[in-house]
Design goal:
13% strand; 288 residues; 50% helix; alpha/beta; elongated; Spore Coat Polysaccharide Biosynthesis Protein SpsA, Chain A
Length: 288
């Protein structure tokens, strides 16, 4: 059921978006209309004219970081300050179809999070830039045991109390959305993905493909260890066990003696298995 206040908070994190933010806020006003809501714009230390534009608006709550702390940090600030249980987030760069926001919020009647998945009929983004993420998405799906059409969409709605319970482990950078997606799916929260379009951004992208892809990969591994340790760590243990079995076969049938390498491989596999079981036990206790 929808929460009793029947309203929602919309959080828009911005950093140097002077070319798009005014139009974005005007569009949001038209789309949301008379529905009870608040728009929280978190200025993450902008150095262009974004702050001046926001200062002229009386129809928003503007929160400002003195310096650039990161996309995730801006979202955390907005989530903590939100007055409603239902929260939607959207970027201020003109890429996402803002008209989908009311529908995403309504779907929170049945889900803890609803993600606008960029798999619609009109999606404009670099295929080359997205290519490495295909493999990372497959890995994330394996960790979460759930299909993930869009791992890091910046247009989504969720319940505040649910995300607050994970806030301490969510990163301050662009990987905030990736982590919350994997976290909720791995812990079996009801999550829906709704197809949306995606337009070419207004202004220069803040993402650095090579650096952010490497960080993205590191984050997926770390998130997997945190939320699904057995699925991440046990394959490593099995590699050692397979190598130990091959070495033992060679020892018994060729050398006729037990070598140190077989014992080391077997011991390493056993230690990694025990570590995985311990990590899984800690995960279960922390999530209970």
């Amino acid at each position: 059921m929808m929460d009793s206040d029947d309203g929602f908070s919309l959080i828009v994190p911005v950093f140097n978006e002077e070319l798009a933010i005014a139009d974005t806020l005007d569009r949001l006003r038209e789309i949301i209309g008379d529905q009870r809501h608040e728009i929280i714009v978190v200025d993450d230390g902008s150095t262009d004219g974004t702050s001046e534009i926001l200062a002229q608006r009386s129809d928003i709550r503007c929160l400002r970081h003195a310096e650039n702390l990161g996309y995730g940090a801006a979202l955390k600030t907005g989530i903590r300050a939100a007055r409603h249980e239902l929260i939607a987030i959207a970027d201020g760069d003109g890429t996402y179809p803002l008209e989908e926001i009311p529908a995403l919020v309504r779907r929170l009647q049945s889900y803890d999070m609803v993600v606008g998945a960029r798999i619609g009929d009109n999606v404009q983004y670099s295929r080359i830039r997205s290519f490495p993420k295909v493999f990372l998405k497959l890995y994330a799906q394996w960790i979460a045991r759930h299909p993930i059409p869009d791992l890091n969409s910046g247009l989504r709605a969720f319940r505040r109390r649910v995300v607050l319970s994970y806030l301490k482990v969510l990163p301050n950078g662009f990987s905030f959305t990736t982590t919350i997606t994997v976290a909720l799916l791995a812990n079996r929260h009801p999550v829906e993905f709704r197809p949306i379009d995606y337009a070419k951004r207004i202004g220069k992208s803040k993402i650095q493909p090579i650096r952010d892809t490497i960080r993205f990969a590191q984050l997926i591994v770390r998130t997997g260890i945190y939320f699904a340790p057995l699925r991440v760590i046990m394959p490593v243990a099995w590699l050692f066990f397979v190598a130990a079995a091959a070495s033992l076969y060679n020892d018994v049938f060729r050398l006729g003696d037990l070598t140190d390498s077989s014992l080391i491989l077997l011991g390493a596999g056993t230690q990694i298995t025990l570590f995985a079981l311990l990590a899984d036990m800690v995960d279960k206790r922390s999530s209970s």
